[in-house]
Amino acid sequence: MALGPATGLALVDALAAEPALKDYHLLPSVRGDLLAKLGRVAEARVEFERAASLIRNERERTLLRDRAAACAPGQAPPSG
């Protein structure tokens, strides 16, 4: 974050190519957060929904779905 969300997003995107992280829920969650910070809320919503689909913990799933819903048109960007 020290270099901004765009730099962070580039780093996360590089990690996304790693096969071992394919089903790791925190990767799309972080990606969604960075996209939201960049104002790319439609893409952020997709990432939060993907993260929610990868997790078994109901509380975390609810949090991620809430963050996805906050990215709906007319909503304020989610805070993270």
Describe the structure.
By secondary structure, the protein is an all-alpha fold. It has one domain. It is 61% helix and 0% strand. The protein contains four helices and no strands. The longest helix is centred in the middle third of the chain and has 13 residues. The protein is flat, with a radius of gyration of 12 Å.
Strand content: under 5%
N- and C-termini, Cα separation: 12 Å
- Give the averaged pLDDT, no decimals: 90
Cα Rg: 12 Å
Share of helix, binned: 55-70%
Number of domains: 1
Low-confidence stretches: none
Shape call? flat
**Quaternary state of the chains:** single chain
Largest β-sheet summary: none
**Strand segment count:** 0
Count every helix, treating DSSP H or I runs of 4 or more residues as helices.
4
Order of helices and strands: HHHH
Structural class: mainly alpha
Features:
single chain, 80 residues, mainly alpha
Blueprint of the fold:
Elements: H1 5-16, H2 26-37, H3 41-53, H4 58-69
Put the structure in a nutshell:
The protein is built from four helices and no strands.
